[in-house]
Specification:
342 residues, Rossmann fold, binds magnesium ion, 32% helix, 8-stranded mixed beta sheet, 23% strand, 11 helices, alpha/beta, 4-stranded antiparallel beta sheet, binds adenosine-5'-triphosphate, single chain
Amino acid sequence: MEQALDKQVLLEVNHLNVQFQLKNGKQAKVVDDVSFVIHKGETVALVGESGSGKSITSLSIMRLLPMPPGQIAAGTIALNGKNLLELKNKDMSSIRGNDVSMIFQEPMTSLDPVFTIGNQMIEAIRRHQKVSKGQAREMALQHLKDVGIAHAEKVITEYPHQLSGGMRQRVMIAIAMCNKPQLLIADEPTTALDVTVQAQILKLMMKMKKEQQSAILFITHDMSVVAQTADRVMVMYAGQIIEDAPVRELFLQPKHPYTAALLKTMPSLETEMTRLPSIPGTVPPAYALPEGCRFAPRCPFVMAHCHKRTPEPRFIQPNHSVRCHLFAEEGALAYEGQRSAT
Ligand SMILES: Nc1ncnc2c1ncn2[C@@H]1O[C@H](COP(=O)(O)OP(=O)(O)OP(=O)(O)O)[C@@H](O)[C@H]1O
Ligand SMILES: [Mg+2]
């Protein structure tokens, strides 16, 4: 599942900065200088501890960030070369749910409780495709069957609260995929579900992705899911992407001390995890970030200048970047030496 370098770029996020104005007057930099690329058809996992900025990054792409208190202070988000941040609301609405769809962690936040599943699906289809109500209904039924709902005729007449969590998530996937998006953003889509349903939903997402050749930005805390599904992994820490690498390389040769610690504390890929494993210390809050590298206070390889200068992302391979002073030329060798000695 290695990433092909010659793949076409679908989404390009450049130097994205998102801030929140807090009630106490402070400003929280929740996404800071985030840059990444997603290629057509690629599955990219975004991992990181709670509060690291994963959901805010995805909501920014969808232009669903609550503004205020949120604000995109800088950066560009280009889909097929078009900066979404410059689009009029009307033009963004025609992209949302069509070219880019999102599945949320809790499906009740995006399913409307007062409309039937059928009404919501027909509306989602007709917003982007010129078809009659009857045709849209037939399409909705087919989409529900595609996501493994056998009694689709009954489900289409029901309201969200009448369905189980697993069924609601299937419906969400059916809605998200009904206009064949080029990019699906899945923000912890299976966290609220029990293990067997999780596995089914995951399988289903990957099947739909393959059929429709969509790219996926997959936010998850479950590294076994990452290992099974992703082509590439981006690790976020305190609002920044600190490492970005093909999945095999990241698992076998993590470079950033945070990624290495994350993988080291994982009991095993087979073990069920509800949270990312804990690393001594805590993530600094977004309104009180330390000077220099944000991981420095927890880093076993910290150097004096890590507390003073923020490391920039550095490509150590054409498709592997890391944001760490150890990978400035002078530090890299010493670090590799220390690591192989442990
Ligand atoms: N409406 C808001 N007002 C102020 N701060 C916010 C708001 N929403 C999010 N934040 C802050 O933004 C930061 C990033 O939040 P985000 O939801 O993106 O984290 P996450 O990585 O998705 O975490 P999780 O794994 O828990 O879902 C957090 O510090 C959070 O407290
Ligand atoms: Mg989140």
